[in-house]
Structure formats: structure tokens, C-alpha cells
Design brief:
alpha/beta, two-stranded antiparallel ribbon, Pyruvate Kinase, Chain: A, domain 1
Length: 308
């Protein structure tokens, strides 16, 4: 009887866990749908403005900017690395993949003889850095799983100021990139300096005078001359900061939607496992109860036979 009672308690506990994980799965699914809509809605703007800057810099000739070429005198400070993790757990391998990639990147930079300034977004990276004795410069708790553009804009402006002043020689972001609902990949993105575009990266090759050749319907090449108003330097001065801000915000959005989909998958797996365990415990409980009934019947028959 004691064994059956113990199994019944375990069945109740597993059922409670299954209800909790099912609720968390439904919440993560709802948040994932909203976060995916935000991330996919902002991606065309981020890609479009980066392509616009690439074409402008490629077709305008030899145009330089401190956000591309770095401050005057070359890099002076330490590289800065921002590692984007989650505030909460129960999201499968999400944080582990990002933190392992971050640790690998930091080791590579230090192996090259450079010191690294590390910043974290999300509370889950704190314990990892403390255990591995990694010194953290700043914590950013203002983003969470629903980042706002105002907070991302302030952080991007701070990074640009630090880069232009020479305090940091480069700024990189380590986060989870959202590719699809079934595929996310941790990556290291160099935010600053922006990679200088090549002559043909914006489309057709450009000449020194800012002319390019575009193919017509007949397949022949036609010469197109571009006139810039205002000057390419002024245009880049407006577009490059906007590109940095949009890229940082897109990284935070991708990290948020990747966290939600990872939690949704993890909670679905936990719910399925709880259901399987519940069936297994029910089977054990039925066997224990049947064995108990059989034992009681045997005792009754034996007692009746002894009285004859």
C-alpha cells in the first residue's frame, strides 16, 4: 500500500509539472509570434540602409569616414565585446551556445596579445563569467526579451562615441542570429569599424568619377552618371550612424526571438516528457495495485483453507 501511495504522489507531481511546462510553452509561443513579427519587419530596413551605404561609398569614389576607417591616428583602446544572453533560463541550449562562442572569441583575441573589455546583456551571462573568472565591465539590463529602439539607440551612440574617441579599437556583438523558426545560429558581428565596401560590392563596378554601368533589356551595358546632393561625405555622415543603430537593434531583436523559440521548443519537449512519465507511472501504479489485490485475495483464500 505504501508503494502505491508513493507512486500516486509522483503522478500528481508530474501532472503539476506538465501543466506548468504547457503554460510556459503557450506563453513562449505567444511571445515568439510577436517577437518574430518585429524582427522580420525591421530586417528589410536594416538590410536596405546597409546596402544603400555600400552603394554610396562604392560609387562615390574614395570617400572615407571615421566609422569606417577608424579615428585619426589608428586604433588606441581595447576591443570591446558585447555578449547578449537572456534574463531567464529554461530555454534549452540558447545561453550555452552564445556563451561558449563568446569565451572562444575572447580567448582568440587574448591569444593575439590584446586585452578585451567585456559587456553583458542579460543576467544569465553573469554566473558564467563569474565561474570562469572573466571580468565584466558593464551590465545592460534595459533590454530584456522585448528590446526598445530608444535603449538600443542610446547604447549605439555611446559605442560610436567611445570608438571615435579612441577608447575602444573595435566593437563586436556576440548574439544568436535568427534564421528561421527551426534554425538559429550564434555569431560574432563586428559593429565598429564598419567594413569598408569594395568597388563592386554595391552592384556594378564603379569608376573613379562616380559612374557605373548597368545592363539594359538588350543585355548591353549603359553608362550611368551619379550626381550627389548633398556631398557623399555629408550623406555618409547621416547614414553611417543610422546603420550602426539599426544593426545593433536588429541583433537585439534576433536574440529576443531566438530566446522565445528556444524556450518554446524546450517547454514542448518537457511537456512531452512529463506526459510519457505520467503514463509510465500510471502503469506502475496499476501493477502495484493489482499485486496488492492479488496478495489480499491470496491471504483470504489461505485463511479460509486453514479454518477447514
Amino acid at each position: 500500500m505504501a508503494k502505491a501511495r508513493e507512486i500516486r504522489k509522483r503522478i500528481k507531481a508530474v501532472a503539476n509539472i506538465r501543466r506548468i511546462t504547457k503554460t510556459m510553452q503557450m506563453i513562449a509561443t505567444s511571445k515568439f509570434a510577436k517577437a518574430q513579427q518585429r524582427a522580420t519587419a525591421s530586417k528589410p530596413f536594416t538590410e536596405g540602409i546597409f546596402q544603400l551605404v555600400t552603394e554610396l561609398a562604392a560609387k562615390a569614389g574614395n570617400v572615407s569616414h571615421p566609422l569606417i576607417n577608424g579615428p585619426t591616428g589608428g586604433p588606441k583602446g581595447k576591443p570591446l565585446v558585447l555578449v547578449v544572453t537572456s534574463d531567464r533560463g529554461l530555454c534549452g541550449p540558447y545561453n550555452g551556445l552564445v556563451l561558449r562562442l563568446g569565451a572562444k572569441h575572447i580567448r582568440e583575441v587574448r591569444a593575439a596579445g590584446q586585452e578585451v573589455e567585456i559587456e553583458l546583456s542579460g543576467r544569465k551571462g553573469v554566473a558564467f563569467c563569474r565561474f570562469n573568472k572573466i571580468e565584466v565591465g558593464r551590465m545592460h539590463n534595459e533590454f530584456g526579451d522585448n528590446p526598445k529602439y530608444d535603449a538600443a539607440e542610446r547604447l549605439a551612440q555611446d559605442y560610436m562615441d567611445r570608438f571615435l574617441s579612441g577608447r575602444n579599437s573595435s566593437i563586436s556583438i556576440i548574439s544568436m542570429k535568427f534564421l528561421s523558426a527551426g534554425k538559429q545560429r550564434p555569431e560574432v558581428l563586428q559593429l565598429l569599424p564598419l567594413k569598408p565596401p569594395t568597388a563592386g560590392s554595391g552592384g556594378a563596378p564603379s569608376s573613379e568619377k562616380g559612374a557605373s554601368r548597368d545592363g539594359g533589356k538588350d543585355g548591353r551595358q549603359h553608362r550611368v552618371d551619379y550626381e550627389f546632393s548633398p556631398s557623399p561625405e555629408e550623406l555618409l555622415g547621416e547614414l553611417l550612424p543610422a546603420t550602426v543603430k539599426a544593426t545593433l537593434f536588429q541583433c537585439l531583436l534576433d536574440a529576443a526571438v531566438s530566446e522565445h523559440v528556444a524556450r518554446m521548443v524546450a517547454m514542448k519537449a518537457a511537456t512531452d516528457n512529463a506526459a510519457k512519465m505520467g503514463k509510465l507511472l500510471n502503469r506502475k501504479f496499476n501493477r502495484a495495485r493489482q499485486a496488492q489485490i492479488t496478495t489480499e485475495l491470496t491471504e483470504i483464500v489461505s485463511g479460509a483453507a486453514a479454518l477447514e
